[in-house]
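Many introductory courses stop at the sequence. We go one step further.
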Amino acid sequence: MGRLGNLLRNPFASLFSREGGQLDRLATYVIREHERGRPLAEILDDPYLRNRTTPEQRQRLLDNPEVVRAIGAERISDARVSR
């Protein structure tokens, strides 16, 4: 049955998996830019990120465990307060 079977079982799965993959790539971008020395607030206001996400998606990026681990929970908390 393969792909058709998956589609019939969960017709909306591809919608959510695509967004998840996009947010994973953007989380990688946030981490990489932070490692290059950019402040988190500057990264979140970056046109590259803003053009590809909604404000809600940017907030979800701050919940990503890899982003929290790389940047630090305290800095994430500070970014949420300043937004």
